[in-house]
């Protein structure tokens, strides 16, 4: 419940329930006293520190005081919840096993055979028929509303305020039955949603795997091309020194011929 004087519309988040106000140091100490426990005088002491224990006797309990403190301060018994099948929390009733009410349980007429089935087959078959009946009733209601007016007092004799009351009531029953049948399909919807998500994730992983393999092939081709280019450059570097040596030998031969010619000239002289 909201705190008094604090409108919910003026807050970013709704105020918390007032149950937390029951967990006061005095209430917790009183509960421990009534249960026969020993309460520390210094509640702010760190764990492991030596704390003085109050040896004073607890005050006598008033009628129903212990039960009230246990109800408001202690957590619910899990075994009792499972045994009873329901439990209260913050003023609301909850069940240990969630149950979706059927159309008959909420007082609706039996417009469909059985709204509870395995796999939702009956619900899926009932929804189109309910929709068709809803549209047919709506057309009948429009036909009545646009028809000739009745004689004053004629409808009052039949116990109806207007001629379209029966159609409006039938539309309400059809809409409620459709909602109940749709609620019965929650389990089927959750299963189908899970299957769809798993298929989507599988398709995304396959797409990522295909892209990764294509990228790997591209990288492998690039590495192979770089290896070939490196091998070609290495072969060219090894061939260049041979050509230089041949060129040096070719250039040295005219010099030797010139020296021989000079020697011949000196001999003739």
TrEMBL record:
The gene is MED7. Keywords: Activator, Nucleus, Transcription, Transcription regulation. It comes from Vanrija pseudolonga. This is Mediator of RNA polymerase II transcription subunit 7. GO terms for molecular function: transcription coregulator activity. Residues 250-269 are annotated as: Disordered. Component of the Mediator complex, a coactivator involved in the regulated transcription of nearly all RNA polymerase II-dependent genes. Mediator functions as a bridge to convey information from gene-specific regulatory proteins to the basal RNA polymerase II transcription machinery. It is found in: Nucleus. Pfam families: Med7. Signal peptide: none annotated. One of its GO terms (biological process) is regulation of transcription by RNA polymerase II. One of its GO terms (cellular component) is core mediator complex. Component of the Mediator complex. It comes from the Eukaryota.
């Amino acid at each position: 419940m909201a705190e008094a004087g604090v409108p919910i519309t003026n807050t970013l988040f709704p105020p918390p329930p007032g149950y937390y106000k029951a967990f006061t140091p005095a209430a917790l100490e009183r509960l421990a006293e009534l249960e026969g426990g020993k309460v520390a005088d210094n509640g702010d002491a760190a764990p492991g520190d030596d704390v003085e224990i109050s040896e004073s006797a607890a005050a006598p309990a008033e009628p129903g005081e212990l039960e009230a403190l246990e109800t408001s301060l202690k957590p619910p018994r899990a075994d009792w919840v499972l045994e009873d099948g329901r439990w209260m929390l913050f003023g609301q009733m909850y069940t240990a096993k969630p149950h979706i009410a059927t159309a008959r349980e909420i007082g609706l007429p039996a417009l469909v055979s059985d709204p509870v089935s395995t796999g939702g087959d009956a619900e899926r078959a009932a929804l189109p028929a309910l929709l068709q009946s809803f549209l047919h009733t709506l057309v009948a209601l429009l036909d009545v509303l646009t028809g000739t007016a009745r004689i004053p007092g004629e409808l009052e004799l039949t116990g109806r305020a207007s001629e379209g009351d029966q159609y409006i009531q039938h539309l309400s029953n059809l809409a409620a039955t459709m909602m109940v049948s749709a609620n019965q399909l929650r389990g089927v919807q959750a299963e189908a949603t899970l299957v769809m998500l798993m298929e989507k994730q599988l398709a995304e992983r396959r797409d990522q795997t295909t892209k990764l393999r294509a990228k790997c092939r591209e990288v492998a081709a690039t590495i192979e091309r770089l290896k070939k280019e490196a091998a070609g450059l290495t072969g060219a570097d090894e061939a260049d020194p041979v050509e230089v040596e041949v060129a040096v030998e070719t250039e040295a031969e005219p010099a030797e011929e010139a020296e021989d010619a000079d020697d011949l000239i000196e001999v003739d002289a």
